[in-house]
Amino acid sequence: MPWPLPPAPGVFCATPYHSAMREIRAQVERSLLHAEWPAPANVRAFTTLRAPAGDSAPPFDRFNLGQRSGDDASVVAGNRLMLERALDLPSAPRWLRQVHGNRVVRLADGSETDEPEADAAVTTTPGVVLAILTADCLPVVFAARDGSEVAAAHAGWRGLAAGVLEATLAAMDSPAHDVIAWLGPAAGPRAYEVGAEVRDAFVAHDARDEAAFEPTRPGHWLADLYALARRRLRDAGVPAVHGGGLCTIRDDARFFSHRRDQRTGRMATVVFIEPAAALDA
Description:
This protein has 281 residues and is an alpha+beta fold. Helix content is 26%, strand content 21%.
């Protein structure tokens, strides 16, 4: 169901219009996985689910937010608008052109529409909505304990090995010991099988990472992205890391998974600082 058009001026049909809006808002709320972490009251964070909201057709059904997934661009744009309006977001999400690297951008203007090439973003501006797209990679959100700063990072295995989490923390004004983190849904350690190039990228950096790889067949291991991320965050000085324990590959009812389905949609992990006016309302 696309976002309804308001009635024309002078035409009294508000009841069907408002009824449609209420239904869409309810669907979007049911399509959210809220971050479970002790964030400050002015920080909001969540990951979208694949349904029941959204209008994308299979194999992108339904709430696909990825414009580069192969889905109809106009439908994805409608899904993005639905997310923004149904949740009364303070501004449109600031999407990134993700490249599995470690570049971090600082975003201060929620009205801009460009998509910088980066895999993480930081803001201290209330109302700027940071967004990361994933479908097996690990989304990580950060918040300063005093609610003055937030960040979001796209941590696939390449970005994780390249230090995207450490780069995100380095880009924040807040010291790591004053930051908390939440790990969103990603490929789980009982389903995410990788080859030697992935294992070697981590173990060459830190021999302790070998514990995050369980051998399966010759030249292959099950990788624990959550364990790898937690170790890097702890080593960087973050005292509290929450989340984890989910698997995008195994849970096809709730999550998109590129590893499982190849052609599929993308979920958004969102974090922002509520403007003061919204908190006072």
